[in-house]
Amino acid sequence: MDGLLAHLRQLLGAAGFREDGDLSPWEKDWRGRWPGSALAVALPASTEEVAAVVRACAAAGVAIVPQGGNTGLVGGGVPDATGRQLVLSLRRMNTIRAVDVANLTLTVDAGCLLTQVQAAAEENGLLYPLSLAAEGNCTIGGNLATNAGGTQVLRYGNARELCLGLEVVTPQGEIWHGLSGLRKDNTGYDLRDLFIGSEGTLGVITAATLKLHPRPGAVMTALAGFSDLNAALRLIDRSRRALDAGLTGFELMSAHALGLVQQWCPPMRSPLPATPWTALIELAAATEAQGQRQLEELLGDALACGDITDAAVATSLSQAAQFWALREAIPRAQALSGLNIKHDIALPVSAIPAFVSETHAALQAALPGCRPVTFGHLGDGNLHYNVQAPEGVEPATFLREQEALVNALVHDRVSALGGSISAEHGIGVLKREELARRKSPVALQMMRAIKQALDPQGLMNPGRLLPD
Ligand code: FAD
Questions:
Q1: Is it true that domain 96-214 has CATH number 3.30.450.40?
Q2: What is the pLDDT of residues 15-71, one digit of tens each?
Q3: d(CA 243, ligand 1 centre) in Å
Q4: What top-level class would CATH report for the domain 218-331?
Q5: Residues 233-250 pLDDT 10s
Q6: What is the second-level CATH architecture of the domain 340-416?
Q7: Which CATH architecture has domain 2-89?
Q8: Which residue pairs from 431-440 have beta carbons closer than 8 angstroms and sit at least 24 positions apart in sequence?
Q9: Distance, CA 141 to ligand 1 centroid (Å)?
Q10: CA of 68 to the centre of ligand 1 (A)
Q11: Which protein residue's CA is at the shortest distance from atom 35 of ligand 1?
Q12: Is the ipTM reported for this complex over the cut 0.95?
């Protein structure tokens, strides 16, 4: 081990290697749920340095935890408590390598922040549409490793759909140069798609070629209040028919979720009178006038037939930003209110009203007074269905004592309705056992075979994603 540390010290220099002092920014996850202890932190500045670090670790039999912005919510990017895993942070690799306007692509280092990538596209009059509340802190490598979703999936797809090529350092320390910007390439197994969503267990993503889109002429945002989720389904259906690909976002927020924002993130509050549910609707249009007309027609019809009770259309960019800020503040408000039991589930959109009412009733029967915080990307069938302790119960105690029961109750319903236990955040440490229970044995066997083929030493992020 000493030989490895001495080698890395020399290879990476003072700027690229940390072994003493406070390593907590790399050892502690965003929620503070899985504090770990790192052997050391490597911060390589180039793909060649990443490859050299990986080769040295492979020779010494030392496990690597790839890390980007460390905003992951399932404990996949922090070391375990043994003090024997090396954190490999990509944060110093943050160069925009190339913008190809003619072919609508952007090639970037994996450690670029998502906001940096969005800005590079914008500077060239184009759009990189991936957008999530952690965008100022998460990296494109982490986004791809988790196949991140966010608020624009309805129109543009998730991180997988927005990636054309990858550069990857394999667990043996070889470099796979797959930075193609081609939109079509049927030459066998799709290696790019294998690494996307693999949560650092198959190799280290060092760069990506991303798909850009033209910027819409105008983007309009509105809030709508309604009392039941079946009305939300009718509103989605109406929006799709009226706007087609112009519908770029349809977010759901429960009254309790908005109440937490009001309580913990003042002065933020919804401009609408309180209703059980609020939707944030976003559309893209050729011109502002066209977008305004489409949105007013849509909401006017929904009001006339009683599907919604109130609506507000943002009249300026800053008001639109305020509407989005309400939605994006929910995870922070929840974190400030104490630990809660998180679920990031996908369901057929049509099954969501039944899921919410049945799960709510079952939770109340099992744990009277517990408080679901329901919000998410309703248009994609993705709910963040989180459960807070009853009033007066200490959140950490609730989490420790009731997490297994609540998870079983929520995930059993998800499975019964044909859903998934992870829509966006991935498996990490948090859902490994659930994956073992819920994934088919044939699927698990194929996943293990892939891992064994690419990482036979099992040194890439062990203890994450794949169940033991
Ligand atoms: P990290 O947290 O550093 O790592 C995440 C995983 O990817 C780990 O398993 C790690 O080992 C692996 N990894 C990281 N970089 C690499 C690399 N270069 N090569 C190989 N493996 C790597 N997620 C969504 O999908 N949608 C949302 O709407 C959303 N909203 C969020 C809001 C908040 C407030 C927060 C805190 C998180 C949110 N997330 C969301 C979760 C998180 O932001 C995403 O998972 C993000 O993609 C993680 O990126 P990161 O750079 O922080 O990765």
A1: no
A2: 999 999 999 999 999 989 999 999 999 999 999 999 999 999 999 999 999 999 999
A3: 31
A4: alpha beta
A5: 999 999 999 998 899 999
A6: 2-Layer Sandwich (3.30)
A7: 2-Layer Sandwich (3.30)
A8: 431/74, 432/463, 432/464, 432/465, 432/466, 432/467, 432/468, 433/467, 434/407, 435/465, 435/466, 435/467, 436/467, 438/411
A9: 8
A10: 7
A11: 134
A12: yes
